[in-house]
Amino acid sequence: MQRRSALKSLAVTFGGLVSLPAWASSWTPDSVGPVSLVSFDEETLLGEIVETFIPETSTPGAKSLKVHQFALRMIKDCYGESAQTTLQQGLALTETTAQQAYSKAFAACDAPQRLDVLSRMVASTDPAGKPFVDLAKRLTIQGYTNSEYYLVNVQKFTMAPGFYHGCVPVSKLAVNGTK
Amino acid sequence: MSFLNIDSAKERTFDAIVVGSGISGGWAAKELTGKGLRTLVLERGRDVKHVTDYPTTMMQPWEFQHGGQLTKEYRDANPIASRCYANREDANHFFVKDAEHPYVQEKPFDWIRGYQVGGKSLMWARGTQRWSQYDFEGPARDGFAVEWPIGYADIAPWYSYVEKFAGISGNKDGLPQLPDGEFLPPHEQSCVEKHFTEQMAKHYNGTRPIIIGRCAHLTKPQPIHLQQGRGQCQNRSLCQRGCPYGGYFSSNSSTLPWAAKTGKLTLRPDSVVHSIIFDEKKNKATGVRVIDAHTKEMTEYYAKIIFVNAACLNTNLVLLNSKSNRFPNGLGNDNGLLGKYVAFHNFRTGISAEHDGFQDTTTEGIRPNSSYIPRFRNVFKQETTGPGSRFLRGYAAGFGSSRATDVDTSGMGEDLKNSLMQPKYGNWRVSSHMMGETIPKESNFVALDSSLTDAWGIPQLKISVAYDDNDEKMIRDFHEQMSEMLTVSGFKNIQTHDNPNKAPGLDIHEMGGVRMGKDPKTSLLNKWNQFHTCKNVFVTDGACMTSTSTQNPSLTFMAITARAANHAVEELRKGNL
């Protein structure tokens, strides 16, 4: 949502010049395509990490929406080499931290254990710890809130509303309905 | 000079040539073909056909690979183009890459270009406010640049003429400093914008009106728009991709297809104009030299009249490169002023704030527009006391608002997800950006580089344009006045922002270099946009502007072009050209 806010403030800043809709950016697994940045195992691990940030409940979690593939695409194409290094080192650190804390793989940990591993990494002195968690979390939120599922079901996105009303009661709208 | 001519000279001869197919070139094409002239339109970029060449226009937001962002590879290779607000993943294909047309920045200047049929009319921001008499009278009253050879009364009927055809949405506000036009229904202001408007009326006794912006959107298409094949704006606000409905005005959706329907239009994309051909015996221009963008072969095209609408700085480039024995320093450049007195709009700064009232209201739908604050400084006279007396001219400003949604992203796991799935309304947020008038000066100029050339063998343009002290004073006044205006209206968390490193150019409102004026000694063009010394060449894009005022300039380019084209055809029929 930080990104959405940034976009919104950008849209407002430029005012009459441009009005970027809040969902000017989004993605699907199809649009992302295959990304060869990490190994199959590492990609699987990243899937478990994004799922830890946004787990499946009665609604889809980040893994089933393939947010980790979006994150890999973004790191590969839109971020620099240092982010790719952070990713590689962070994934390795995730496994070693899980082994040290619980003597098992991150994927074998339960949800509280996984959250604890990520919290330990944030607190860690390892230079790949906090930067990796921050990067992965930021991309998880960006990917999830710009996914088709989220935009259609939560934001009630309509590409061409055909109208604008400047002052409507919030009681008339679900939060974020047709914005 | 020898040429590889496939076709005969006769086949390369037209009644009129228009250089450029953007917002003013499109209007020249429409007017000239509409009056029966066989017209060649030359566009240096590729063809972009309405609808079929808008590849991203129907893409859902989630269909973009990078969530709308530009890739690092692109940003690293194109630091200039990447800085343009509209250049994102969905419209990236309409922006010229830095390496494709290099130029020399004697001072930092971000030159944003759209080389394609339609030019920047595809990606423009669509603000269309008229100038008033106070804008045209500015240079003479305040003693800068030179006097405009035309006034509001000269241009007013042509504003009406182009507004009816283009389709301009707006409210009749009755302001002398921002005359009303031929309006389609206006967009609505939000609750908070209405509140701000009311507070301003109260606190400043009507001297600082706030209005809904006037913009080139078909809020209620008229028969003339339907005849163009255009329809109702769908409030998508995805304009920079090209609009399949023709909901906003562009050359591609409006003037060019209209010109084509006359059967008089020849549109030639991939045609880089090298220079204007001047015939000393006839003492007028006879045509243009064109380099094929791909084969690099040069061909000449001939016509009785030539409209140069290549976009401000490229128009300067073409004219500076049009050297002859008669004009060794560029076409019509006897006084050495060609390329000088370039000005722009100062878009460097802005302000944002929040309002914690109106909590039970929000907006619904999408508005491709915002509110607008007409210039209130030094409008009817130069202020002699107080802050406004510290600088010449003034600034307008955009003013937008939205009801923010706040999400707590501090957590992880189910806490984070719950927060994301149930966004809460935050405060109303407003934001405004300054649009400052800059004073045209001889020291802000463009010239041909003496050694560097581009891929077509044409000298590179050297740009030497910068802010001055007047601009800095205006920025400070904008901060002070807007802070006061927001404070008295109950806004909180008021934050100004200014980036002194933001170079001129990103406003994409560059103007001048081939200015109009009354005196051939101090200007290049007369009141009909003809060169004083080469009457069959007309310049009607931003390059012709004597001063810049504060309004978005495209509507004025359209009106000036239609007016000049009408005059050109009259003069042609009288045998004067």
Automatic annotation (TrEMBL), chain A:
Signal peptide stretch: 1-24
Keywords (A to Z) from UniProt: Signal
Domain of life: Bacteria
Protein name (database record): Gluconate 2-dehydrogenase subunit 3 family protein
Gene source species: Spirosoma taeanense
UniProtKB/TrEMBL annotation, chain B:
Named cofactor requirement(s): FAD
GO molecular function: flavin adenine dinucleotide binding; oxidoreductase activity, acting on CH-OH group of donors
Domain Glucose-methanol-choline oxidoreductase N-terminal: 111-322
Boundaries of every Glucose-methanol-choline oxidoreductase C-terminal domain copy: 440-560
Keyword tags: FAD, Flavoprotein, Oxidoreductase
Similarity section: Belongs to the GMC oxidoreductase family.
Annotated protein name in UniProt: GMC family oxidoreductase
Organism, as annotated: Spirosoma taeanense
